[in-house]
Automatic annotation (TrEMBL):
Domain named Heparinase II/III-like C-terminal: residues: 356-505
Protein known as: Heparinase II/III-like C-terminal domain-containing protein
InterPro entries attached to this UniProt entry: Chondroitin_lyas, Hepar_II_III_C
Taxonomic lineage of the native organism: Bacteria, Candidatus Handelsmaniibacteriota
SUPFAM superfamilies from the UniProt entry: Chondroitin AC/alginate lyase (SSF48230)
Length: 590
């Protein structure tokens, strides 16, 4: 897409800021009437009571110990330093929110002491990102601190405001222009770009009053946001999955909203067909409630109310509210200053989206069966194995029926030093063994964009049988298979799925192992020709049609610890008794 600010010079941006000198990037946060509404809403939805129960200004402020910070370098575990940081972050946000709302437990000294403690920290960069000048954590802290100064500064002492501002300048602004550090996130085509560039821009909007200095600080950063937009496929798909859509593109939305408000709507980064398509991506990724596609390093979850509300400030997409966490009356569950103030009673309509979705450039399809308590949903992926946060998973798929995920893509592993090292594909959550794809002659799929699949669909949103066809031939090392085509057929009326893998080899293979991944209980029939997956009352039967062979399964208990604390990946396999140059294996899920 065209570079943002392609036709706006730095001087013209300075003039634009100057024309709106008195505007705030978040005027709604300082509007007394809006603050009053936020207070009433906080009392009505439990946030007020949560502050009463959990905020304790007399509590000691935790120090990020050197030994905790060094835990990542020593053993590759980022949990300890991040858990300490997360605890203090929660305290900071609670203390700021209490003061903002005028809560009885609000204590300005507690908030100031928390801010002072951050100023004492050796670094704002996360332990896993040590060596960087600015990272995801430090950029977010800079924006949070500048926002607190902007909204609550009149209640803070000058000494505190001065020190926090000086640390923001030293750790964020000066590092941004340090020629000795090449922070590659500035032009990355993934979430780091939008988070870091976006938070640095928002920090500048709050902190810098001089229009010329503000333009100098932000012009290149705004342009750099384009690179991350280029990381989305032309159909708006997020190769990193819906979790990183919320995180990365969410920060793009925050800064676009702030720039629009700061410039009286003159600078609008939300225009363009591709931006609109990116905004709609979660609709294609959603399965039911918090369940969504978990391809790449993604998790289930809701989109935030703030994200949905910002998008609807630019585009009419009320259907996104269905993807937010809701209260029993279908109003949005909101928290934090922004959501409390922006909320105007928006609610989900209670109309589930039963449409099929195709994202041809992303290589992802969602097919729906007949609505009802036994509705089956299929989510399948082609794409390529060179995406950010890649898994070797071309042809992987998810089957949901009723209220359960019965066949899964296991999603993201736990993030450790190993996850982002050459040993990444030893992790079952990242390699082919953790996905519902074949292993051929002992060979798994390999990482790299040269390993890809091609997706075609038939009868999308139509009546009768719907098909998705993935050519998986190029997903495996050269010479592994001459041709491999996977065909899904969903009979919508009966909510029955057929999967067929058609192989062509140069010579008969030594072994072909079909695989199906689940977190559910598995029972193999005595003859080995079928398996039952899931709990009694809501389970499916997986069987091989026509071809003799045997199902087996193995619970990957130790391997699962690299990704799950409460679930175990179960790998179901099927091996055919006969192997030949032309092999067609057909499975039914019903």
């Amino acid at each position: 897409m065209d570079m943002l600010l392609r036709h706006v010079t730095m001087t013209e941006l300075a003039d634009l800021f100057a024309r709106h000198q008195d505007r705030s990037p978040a005027p709604y946060l300082t509007d007394p009437e809006a603050v009053g509404r936020a207070r009433r809403l906080a009392k009505a939805n439990g946030i007020w009571d949560d502050l009463s129960e959990h905020l304790d200004p007399g509590r000691d402020i935790p120090v990020i110990k050197r030994s905790a910070f060094r835990n990542y370098r020593r053993v590759g575990d980022r949990t300890l330093p991040q858990s300490r940081s997360a605890y203090r972050s929660r305290e900071l946000h609670r203390a700021a929110l209490a003061l903002y709302l005028g809560h009885p437990k609000a204590n300005v000294d507690y908030l100031q002491d928390l801010l002072w403690a951050y100023c004492d920290d050796h670094t704002w960069v996360m332990a896993a990102h040590e060596g960087r000048a600015i990272d995801l954590g430090s950029a977010a802290l800079g924006a949070t601190f500048s926002e607190i100064l902007h909204v609550l500064g009149d209640r803070l002492e000058d000494e505190v405001k001065g020190r926090v501002s000086a640390e923001i300048d030293r750790r964020i602004f000066q590092n941004l222009w340090n020629y000795k550090h090449m922070d590659e996130w500035k032009t990355r085509r993934m979430n780091w770009n939008h988070v870091c560039n976006g938070e640095v821009i928002r920090t500048a909007l709050y902190q810098i009053e001089d229009p010329r200095i503000l333009a100098h600080m932000t012009h290149a950063a705004i342009q750099n946001l384009t690179y991350a937009l280029d990381g989305f496929t032309e159909d708006g798909g997020c190769e990193e999955g819906p979790g990183y859509w919320s995180y990365g593109f969410g920060h793009y939305l925050y800064v676009a909203h702030a720039l629009s408000l700061r410039t009286g709507g003159e600078l609008n980064l939300m225009t363009g067909d591709k931006i609109e398509r990116i905004c709609r991506y979660p609709l294609a990724a959603q399965i039911a409630g918090p369940l969504r596609s978990t391809f790449a390093d993604s998790h289930h979850g809701y989109i935030s109310a703030r994200i949905a509300m910002i998008i609807n400030a630019f585009y009419k997409m009320p259907e996104l509210y269905e993807l937010c966490e809701l209260r029993p009356n279908r109003t949005l569950k909101v928290s934090g200053m922004h959501e409390l103030v922006l909320y105007r009673g928006q609610r989900a309509r209670g109309a589930p989206d039963h449409r099929d979705y195709l994202m041809p450039d992303l290589g992802q399809v969602k097919l729906r069966g007949r609505p009802g308590g036994r509705q089956m949903t299929l989510m399948a992926l082609a794409g390529h194995n060179g995406v950010p946060h890649n898994h070797n998973d071309i042809g992987s798929f998810i089957v949901h029926r009723g209220d359960r995920l019965l066949l899964v893509d296991p999603g993201a592993p736990l993030y450790t030093r190993k996850t982002f090292s050459p040993r990444r594909y030893e992790i079952v959550f990242c390699n082919s063994l953790g996905h519902s794809v074949p292993v051929i002659n002992g060979k798994q799929q390999q990482p790299g964009s040269q390993y890809y699949g091609k997706l075609e669909v038939e009868n999308l949103n139509g009546e009768g049988k719907k098909r998705a066809v993935i050519d998986m031939t190029r997903a495996y090392p050269k010479g592994t298979v001459k041709r491999l085509v996977r065909t899904f057929t969903l009979t919508a009326r009966t909510n029955r799925l057929t999967l067929e893998d058609a192989y062509t080899f140069s010579r008969a293979p030594r072994s072909v192992e079909e695989a199906f991944i689940t977190f559910e209980k598995v029972e193999v029939a005595p003859n080995g020709r079928s398996v039952r997956i899931g709990p009694r009352g809501n389970r499916v039967r997986l069987s091989c049609v026509e071809t003799p062979g045997r199902f087996r399964f193995r619970r990957l208990v130790e391997e699962s610890k690299e990704g799950r604390a409460d679930e175990v990946v179960t790998r179901i396999t099927f091996t055919s008794r006969k192997l030949s140059k032309e092999l067609r294996l057909r499975f039914e899920v019903a």
